[in-house]
Design goal:
Blueprint lengths: L11 E3 L2 E5 L6 E4 L9 H14 L1 E4 L6 H9 L13 E2 L2 E8 L2 E2 L2 E2 L20 E10 L7 E5 H6 L3 H7 L3 E4 L5 H7 L8 H6 L3 E4 L1 E3 L6 E3 L6 E4 L4 H15 L5 E4 L6 E5 L3 E5 L9 E8 L5
Parallel strand pairs: 3-4
Antiparallel strand pairs: 1-2, 2-3, 4-17, 5-6, 6-19, 7-8, 9-17, 9-19, 10-16, 10-18, 11-12, 11-15, 13-14
Length: 297
């Protein structure tokens, strides 16, 4: 579903800030907030609540600097540094450049980020709370990002599948699709031994409980989840395939059509996302910050 504001919900406005929910399975637009200015504690509290309620917030036309993006992100928690440090923004290691642009024959950023459905950093012991992505350059066509509501996926899961995954854990690995991504994209770099050592596989609950809302969500993805712990390989593969397919049904998905200077902030504890892609010859560049979360349970 696309970002069409719901006509029957109306704006919940106080002072200049308004929260406009989308007519979609997730998401809301924030109206009347300039992130280049200090966000008051009252407005920040409303943003925090809206983020929990809608799982994804869209801030339009944000003319902010990298330092301002970092500062706003840090208000939600410590920031995590991505393993591909060669794609950090110079002088700002907290920012990962997401881009297909090449300069002097080399990519300036991670050009194939989000090729498979995933939740950011689910492959580390303490995954991400959320990510902020700020548009710098956008293509004339394509470049959309899709988001799937994993609370809805759990709520609508068939009873026999709920019973099958109860109490189970699954392995998440950064390397799960890495060779395939390199096959598709010759620009994706080889990892050093030091980088590989930083991303050893971890076990996460198949169904996690959101630490702030108590809501349950599926927490497996085609990008990073390799197997369900304790199950025979064929059973694990079949069960994961069913969970993956169910999670991304159209009725669970919101499609974000980027506008100039958009910044979006999504909850990795509640959502998965996928990059829809754009023509290779069209430039696309975004800056991502990632906020550390809690141990899943």
């Amino acid at each position: 579903m696309s970002a069409v504001p719901s006509s029957n919900r109306g704006w919940r406005a106080q002072h200049n800030l308004a929260i406009l929910p989308f007519d979609a399975p997730l998401g809301a637009e924030i109206i009347g907030l300039d992130l280049s200015r200090e966000v008051t504690s009252h407005d920040f509290s409303r943003l925090h609540r809206a983020h929990l309620d809608h799982h994804l917030l869209v801030f339009r036309d944000q003319r902010i600097t990298p330092d301002q993006q970092i500062a706003f992100s840090r208000r939600f928690g410590p920031l995590q540094i991505h393993i591909l440090n060669q794609f950090q923004l110079a002088g700002h290691p907290e920012i990962l450049i997401i881009s297909n642009i090449k300069q002097d024959g080399k990519p300036i950023g991670l050009g194939d980020a989000g090729h498979f459905w995933h939740s950011d950093l689910s492959y580390v012991r303490t995954p991400s709370l959320g990510s902020m992505l700020h548009a710098q350059e956008l293509p004339e066509e394509g470049g959309d990002t899709l988001f799937a509501n994993m609370h809805l996926a759990w709520d609508t899961l068939a009873p026999h599948l709920r019973a099958a995954v109860a109490g189970l854990k699954a392995e998440h690995s950064y390397l799960a699709q890495y060779a395939e991504l390199q096959r598709r994209n010759p620009w994706r770099p080889n990892l050093t031994e030091e980088q590989i050592a930083q991303v050893k596989p971890v076990l996460q609950p198949v169904v996690r409980t959101h630490p702030e809302t108590g809501l349950k969500a599926l927490f497996v993805s085609e990008h990073f989840t390799t197997r369900i712990d304790g199950l025979p390989e064929d059973e694990s593969r079949d069960l994961l395939a069913q969970l993956f397919a169910h999670s991304v049904k159209p009725e669970h998905v919101y499609r974000h059509h980027w506008q100039a200077h958009d910044m979006i902030f999504w909850d990795n504890r509640s959502l998965m996302h996928l990059a829809a892609g754009c023509p290779d010859h069209l430039r696309r560049k975004l800056y991502r910050t990632t906020i550390e979360g809690d141990l899943p349970y």
